[in-house]
User: What shape does this take?
Amino acid sequence: MARHMVPGIARPSLLVLGLITAACQPVIENPAAPAIEPWLQPVPPSGPVSTMGRLGAINTPTARMAEAGTIRLHTARREPYWVAGVTVQPLSRLELTYRRTVDNRSASERGFRFSGGLDAKAMLVREGPYAPQLSLGIDAIAGNGIFGAEYLVASKRVGPLDLSLGLGWGRLAGGGPLSNGFSLIGGHFDKPSRREEFDRGPDEWFSGNRVGLFGSASYQLPWSLPWLPEAEKPRLILEYDSDQYWAEQRFDPGFDPGRIPVNIGLETALGSGFRAGISSERFKTLSARLSWSWNPIKRHQQKPLQNSFRQPQHNPAPVTDADYEESPPLWLDATTVPAGELASAILDQGIAAAHARPDSETITTSIGNQGLPVSSLTMRSTDLRKLASGDASPEEVWHNSESRSSESLPDTAETAGPAATGLLDHLHLTLAPETIIDGFEASSGVVARQSLLFDARYAEQKTRIGASLRLNMADNLDRLTRDRGFTTYPVRSNLEAFADNRLWIDRAYYGTAEHIAPDLYIGGVAGLLEEQFGGISTQVLYWPHDAKWAIGGHLTQAYARDQDQLLNAFTDQVLTAELSGYYHFPGGLMAKAGLVRYLGTDVGLALDFSQPLGDGWMLDGYLTFSDADERSSQRIAQFAETGGADFGLRLRVPIGSVLNSLVSIEPRLSIRALGRDQAQRLDLPYTLYDQVAPAHMNAVV
Assistant: This one.
């Protein structure tokens, strides 16, 4: 049965867009700024870790941020919860925290036992000589609504003191002394401050009749532990917490958190990225926390190709079209070069060609990925010869070179690097042990799934052919039924039925990718696109060869697969689409924001990021919003759960290869919700962005 096509547009929260925009704004340094009083110097991007996993005081947030690329694991005990999770700092101005909470009280005293949540904090203003650092945060973007809170917090360092003061809504409003000015607007802002499990999403943000005040003071002690550097001194923390613990008392009237809303604690670094803290909360209970931070970007920063940058010793004439066509270009396929070494490969082969062609003034290398031409770089032979003799730097070669879009490979092109001639040269095999952990379910513990994927891909010029076989090894997906209700159109909520098949063909497809005009790419793919859906998809991508931004999208007629038939007839169909903008930040981070028509016919906003961690490791994350709740209330569609948001993280770790390097081994670990129907996108076998990125000039310089 075909799904009804319901007209409508996405209604993403302007606040979410504002958070992302603020987080992505560049920080402009002024080297000519006068020196300021050391006591007023901004603090380094670090600080105490709160019980909820973010940088903060004890329970309340501060405006502080970690360095971009930081990954932090944390666990804490605060009455009546155990908390554990992971925090990712994809940008210097954006912090994302996924946490899992367990209420250890008896069933009669709690509203839930397990709860997952996603918190976000964005820096709006960086700390200056006299101005404080200012951050805006939202707790429980996805997850249990009783932890939902929004806040605006300012932090300023004065000598060894780090002071913070904030305004809080939701859980942080408590019995706040201030009236909520937003309530004057009316609408969803004018409602009680107390929130329950399902009170979450944009309709709850900054709502309530009161606004709370919270604050903290962190004092850096004058001594440090003997084995730690001088900068890692313990901190004594004093905190005023506006939380009134209404949610905990709703099911357990006898729960007494303490009458004095003041917490006192001590936190210290332990070395090797570990931090620990202990606190007295409201002079009644004790809390403790432990965290471990790691910054793979700093540990895997690429070394410069040679010596530091030197300005060119001459002022060459610009490279012209005649120079570009002067000699047959070299051809370099990015798949033949180890990750992160494309620039070195271009220079090495350029040097060899410059010596082999003593009469050529320029050397041109056309760069592609799996036979798809993407860009070209024309370098001056004299610069390459100087580089070989040590009289020039790689930066000088780049400075004098000319890049352009490359739509086709000339018939006269020479291969620069390993030639791809046989079937095995175009075939890519991957064995991927996959573990997916779902910590978002409220009535069950951790839900997990383990599979073994064998993926085969063949790529040659415009052609893309692939197949993937899934061996379902173990799962406890039956627990998902405890948190699922009736749904008109199952999207992912029937995942358990697919996992019951021991062996399943995940993908079997035929596709194309073509560079049809300068910087413009088109492609398509048809077949079994993923485990639960097949279909026909068309894609387009516009990515200027010298730009850090790109625009792309896809339009896909998707068909739901029948879990009882391996090579099956399709049971349902839906038209899904996405229009996205990409941007590359320093350090290799790629961020994407897009408008999506999801598989459930709901529409909304999707945010993605991808961060290379070095040595081939890759961290991916996504956050999606949809208008599913509104559609349910209008009886347009009924979904299996409430809350129109989804979130996930995935870590890919290539650890080697077998069978004479024919098969790559790539374990994958994901933390995300399983079996959701809202805000679900199609998992396409490949995107044009993935095909172009390895050979784009961003991968070179």
